[in-house]
Design a protein that fits this description.
The chain is an alpha/beta fold. It has 9 helices and 11 strands. The structure holds S-adenosylmethionine.
Length: about 350
């Protein structure tokens, strides 16, 4: 597909380009059914706003509508739209906003998208926020997952989970080694002997565990060297990579309309997908150039992740510490009154 001349690329690479513009302006000029994957993370409706500005939860759905219209129009019948969107708290209140669920319902019911699957990106390194509810009043737990809505134009987007297999867990390996009796599970599912076949790797669940802990990447070193602020809300490269691998083939076109630091573009360049990253803020585009510098030190590659079980995250079963009742009775006001001093225990 030809790039629209009115939007001169800020940077062109072998497989793609960064465009500094309002993505609505750019996408309006795209032909119908021309894009294989829209992989993006828009500004979330956060109470604590980032530098690039965030739309309030109440206005979010309306703000998103013109984007939704363009996304649906430019996507191929076989294409997918993957939206990483974090939840949000209601201002001054220990309750959650429904905006990302409302957005999903609007995308499906008003714009005709299909929910191919809902994914949950668990960031094990998330801090316990908002501190007021989580660490001070101790009335909520840490919010550590983003929803990732995988939407499609038809119920049959092209996809293969064989592209995103993961190593077997220790218990599965043991099972494969020692074998087990085919029997009915308590859930009623019949576990046949087919499950004993070692296929070399496991089919992943829709919970994706990736810590967002980048601290010494080439991108960050580049920003420091050029005195540019790194983007404050980057997703880890493995997140777009997961969907780019599962949903596109080399040569397909991937668009990120809220590109930020252009992680999506970096992954596409490496995987030889054609790509367009559109970002409004010039400084973010300037910093993103660091992702495409040809330099022997620029070796941030997710293939370097170890293949052994060290790459597994373990979540303890909730009951591990349930040995007796806690001494503190629950506050009858649900924590409305602030405690004089925060209660102790594990934080
Ligand atoms: C959550 S960030 C994306 C971060 C990105 N996924 C990364 O990993 O670096 C959202 C970005 O959308 C940009 N943005 C907001 N509205 C836009 C628009 N209309 N057109 C293009 N970019 C926009 C913001 O400037 C911000 O950088």
């Amino acid at each position: 597909m030809k790039l629209v001349p009115k939007h001169k690329p800020f940077k062109k690479t072998k497989h793609g380009s960064i465009i500094q513009a309002d993505s609505l302006d750019v996408l309006r000029d795209y032909p119908d059914s021309s894009v294989d994957l829209i992989m993006t993370s828009p500004p979330f409706a956060l109470v604590r706003k980032k530098d690039y500005g965030n739309v309030e939860a109440e206005q979010y759905i309306e703000w998103f509508q013109p984007f939704a219209e363009q996304f649906h129009r430019i996507l191929r019948e076989t294409g997918s739209f993957v939206l990483d969107i974090g939840g949000s708290w209601n201002k001054g209140c220990p309750t959650r906003s429904l905006y990302h669920f409302k957005l999903l319902i609007m995308l499906c019911e008003e714009y005709g998208f299909h929910l191919a699957q809902d994914f949950y990106w668990w960031n094990p390194s998330k801090l316990p926020t908002p501190a007021e509810w989580v660490t001070v009043r101790r009335i909520r737990t840490k919010d550590a997952v983003n929803t990732v809505w995988w939407l499609s134009k038809t119920p049959w987007p092209k996809a293969s989970n064989k592209r995103v297999l993961q190593p077997y867990s220790d218990s599965m390996k043991e099972l494969l080694e020692k074998g087990y009796k085919a029997k009915k599970r308590p859930s009623g599912h019949d576990i046949s002997t087919k499950f004993r076949v070692n296929n070399g790797a496991a089919i992943p669940p829709n919970l994706i565990a990736i810590p967002n802990t980048e601290s010494n990447s080439f991108y960050l070193r580049y920003c420091e060297e050029k005195k540019l602020s790194p983007h404050p809300a980057r997703y880890p490269a493995e997140l777009p990579e997961y969907f780019i691998r599962m949903l596109t083939d080399p040569g397909d076109l991937v668009v990120d309309p809220f590109a930020g630091s252009c992680v999506t573009g970096e992954v596409c360049e490496r995987l030889e997908r054609r790509w367009v990253c559109i970002e409004l803020v010039r400084e973010y585009c300037e910093a993103a150039l660091g992702r495409f510098v040809k330099d022997p030190k620029n070796t941030d590659r997710s293939e370097s992740i170890s293949q052994d079980n060290a790459s597994y995250y373990k979540i303890p079963r909730p009951g591990v510490l349930w040995n007796g009742e806690s001494a503190d009775p629950l506050a009858q006001d649900g924590g409305k009154r602030r405690p004089h001093k925060p209660s102790g225990g594990e934080s």
